[in-house]
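dumping the sequnces here before i forget
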Amino acid sequence: MNAPMVKSEGVHKSFGSLQVLKGIDLEVQRGEVFCLVGPSGSGKSTFLRCINHLEKIDSGRLSVDGELVGYRQHGDKLYELKDRDAAKKRREIGMVFQRFNLFPHMTVMQNVIEAPIRVRGESADVARARAVRLLDRVGLSGKADAYPRQLSGGQQQRVAIARALAMEPKLMLFDEPTSALDPELVGEVLDVMRQLAVDGMTMIVVTHEMGFAREVGDSLVFMDDGIVVEKGHPRDVLTNPQHERTKAFLSKVL
Amino acid sequence: MTDHKHADAIKAVPVRHPWRWVATAVIVLLLAMFINMAVTNPNFEWNVIGEYLFSSKILEGVWATVWITIVAMLAGIVLGVVLSVMRLSPNPVLSNVASGYIWFFRGTPVLVQLIFWFNLAVLVPDISLGIPFGPTFVSWDTNSVITPFVAALLGLGLNEAAYMAEISRAGIQSVDEGQVEASSALGMSRTKTMRRIVLPQAMRVIIPPTGNEVISMLKTTSLVSVVAMPELLYQTQQIYARTYQTIPLLIVASIWYLFLTSLLTIGQFYIERHYGKGSTSTQAPTFLQRLRRNVFRFHSPPPTPPSSTLLDAHGGVR
Ligand SMILES: Nc1ncnc2c1ncn2[C@@H]1O[C@H](COP(=O)(O)OP(=O)(O)OP(=O)(O)O)[C@@H](O)[C@H]1O
Ligand SMILES: [Mg+2]
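..and the predicted 3d for all of it:
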């Protein structure tokens, strides 16, 4: 099946009178690393949150893996999904946050096995075995029994990635995963993401790491003020931006 | 460079605290005067206190007090947490019901509520189960359902729930929104998120004031003597109504209340320590360790934890 993993057509979203997304059109192909860049407040986080239905869109159409997000279509009528059904769809989409958001009252291992056990109803053994593999993959096999606070920011973010992967998602959303990190810790997180890209994961990455976007990204979208200003291959957009706003933004971050 | 192993150990005269010694001396003196008065004043009737402290009536009262405290507190906690979750729910029906409940029970004195429950039979002579406005299936005489114990439980428990709801709400709101977001993103339902992620973290904020609530509940149980519930104060009153040894018997009751609240304070300490896990990189000292440190603080203050730990300890709170 070659349908795009994410398809967004004219997506609008407002908070009260503040229009944050003003018609987003884009497609994310399977296996693609899709980078989303733009100034603060341009609506990048909001768009990611719409994709896994943490926010409800006001108009337009948003689908993941061919299915509408947050709605069920029956004939030509749309029905809002119940909380439980929306939660079910979120399982298949992993999300990694700027501030890690690990569960502080649980050990690293418990963080990783919580959702597989509670949500997918896996046995502790199965969940644990996968967690061991995943922690090894992100280079933290020795830290299973540590609590999040005992880890560095880079380690915490790698645990967060392992936690998201434990649900075996078909799509991963990264919201500025390295922005809260000390510069010397950024590399270890990007390495894990790079490996994930090599393994063929579909990823949408909001980032200010232009080096990563250029090297790993397959497409790049520049968003400003709730619209897509420019999109293309990262190399092209970054070296030869077409729009004034893109140029102005890039001159500041590059 | 140097072969001095302790080259970097600081040797300094520690800060002295002469006024602490003076204050201690004054307090010891006052205490001695008080004890002397208490021992020599015959009105205290120490022999009477000794005679009744472990008498069966008093012990029954102690037991009843402990029992009501536990049951009313459990009811209050469970109902209070449910109310707080309702209050924060996006469902306006639930949140308004919870607000109304809290408004009512916090706005009326618990003593009035107790007497009200005890006299429920005046208002509704019997309690029946059935279809609203339709046939009834079973029916009971209210007076046989609302025994003094049930009245005490309803009065104290329902009232406590209103306070626990506020405490629990503060706890839930203290948990970082990112936690709910991460949990939802993993596909956890609202209820699972609440139970597995939010409430355990809210506990750190909920537990300390709950400890105070338990202690205060233990003392508030004395109010249920008005509905003839034979708890500690009621039993004490029964005895001195007969013997007129009012003061010594009130001292007996006070000794028991003090003993029980002291136990609770120690228990509260350990529970707080338990819920602190994961929030600080080092564990808080145990009760005994802390006691020992406080006793020896005259010489050198206990080592303060690094400031980052202190920050961490409160990081989750605000
Ligand atoms: N829940 C909300 N309620 C009200 N306004 C919101 C909410 N979430 C986001 N906004 C507003 O929407 C706008 C876009 O926010 P968003 O977080 O999507 O921007 P962003 O591109 O991710 O920016 P940043 O780079 O700072 O993360 C901002 O003006 C923000 O204040
Ligand atoms: Mg953002």
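The longest strand of chain A covers residues 18-28.
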